[in-house]
Amino acid sequence: MVRGLTLLLLFQLCGEFISRILDLPIPGNVLGMGLLLLALITKLVDIKWLEEAAELLLSNLALFFVPAGVGVMVYGDLIAAEWLPISVATVLSTFVVMAVTGKLAQKLESTESDDVD
Amino acid sequence: MWTELVGTPLFGVTLTLVVYLLAQNLYRRIGSVWVNPVLVSIVTIILLLKMTGIEHHDYARGGDILLFLLGPSVVALAVPLYQRRKEIWQRKRPIMIGIFAGSLVSIISACGLAWILGGSREIILSLAPKSVTTPIAISIVEKIGGVAPLTAALVVLTGCLGAICGPEFCRLIGVTSPVATGLAVGTAAHGIGTARMFEIDRLAGAVAGLAIGLNGLMTTFLLPVLMSFTGF
């Protein structure tokens, strides 16, 4: 468990370092994810070292968003002043994105499996 | 003595964990997606803080510790991706195109709707990365000039909405493949949507996790281009 967490933090740190030193627009944690995937594929890192820690974090992923959501209370006035554009844009846009992504991906997926057949 | 304790990180962390555990319990018992544990926790904590008059910055001392764990969690998404690499690689084209379209549509629809309805520049920019996971959305918004904590909150609300309605909405519009559903919910509702997809199907969860990273990357690159294009 400690080994897994250490590795995750180490890869995040590497990602942050590279992101900063090269002034990339990609955040360090996403870069860290890419680096870890690369290390797993090249067998530099054994998946067994990570499974337990990754499971712990990913099965509780939703919990870590709670404090960010509580932050909404600080912007109550700003949100109240512009509640209409905020709520309509957030809700409609979320459904539009799901519809476009889901429909398109499913269509492409089925045409590709047809090609294979 | 009490006020002294409230100012320690222990308070925020413990409060969040206790409320979240109770909310999870409620979710299991009622079994309805509407009592989404994240949303219930957020509302409960805000009400508790308001009622007791505890300041948000006191709560945030502990909250920030939990928020910190989002970083290594994003890195940990490499694990399910690696485990499901063959199935994902086979579908690389629908996955890439689906996420790219979703990312583009997300920015345009969120900003466009807010603009039509008379939202201020501040609000429009803060809404732009609303479907991107918190740590990435914050770094994007800091670059383009929105209100970072407001974006963080909007991102979480978007995530709750996608997690609550996403899988059901996909079924309703005829999206039944686990990969397409995972992509749709992951692209629209990032980590909170992904957490829900992991409950339903491992492959859908892994794909949703991939969508978090890729949507984050695409939005990072697309947003400045779209902004110069529209002269916003």
Q: Determine the fraction of residues in helical runs of chain B and give it as a percent range.
A: over 70%
Radius of gyration of chain A: 20 Å
Low-confidence stretches of chain A: none
How many structural units, i.e. domains of chain B?
Answer: 2
Outline the low-pLDDT stretches of chain B.
none
Structural class call of chain A reads mainly alpha
Shape of chain A from CA axes? extended
What this model shows, in words?
- Chain A has 117 residues and is an all-alpha fold.
- The mean pLDDT of chain A is 90.
- In chain A, α1 (2-21) crosses α2.
- In chain A, 78% of the residues lie in helices and 0% in strands.
- Chain A is built from 6 helices and no strands.
- Chain A folds into 2 domains: 1-59; 67-117.
- The radius of gyration of chain A is 20 Å and the shape is extended.
- Chain A starts with a helix and ends with a helix.
- Chain B is mainly α and 232 residues long.
- Chain B folds into 2 domains: 2-68, no CATH class; 75-230, no CATH class.
- Chain B has helices at 2-6, 9-30, 37-52, 56-68, 70-76, 78-83, 85-90, 92-116, 121-127, 134-144, 148-172, 178-200, 202-230.
- In chain B, α2 crosses α3 (37-52) and α8 (92-116) packs across α12.
- Chain B is globular and about 60 Å long.
- The mean pLDDT of chain B is 91.
- At the A-B interface, α1, α2, α3, α4 and α6 of A face α2, α3, α4, α5 and α6 of B.
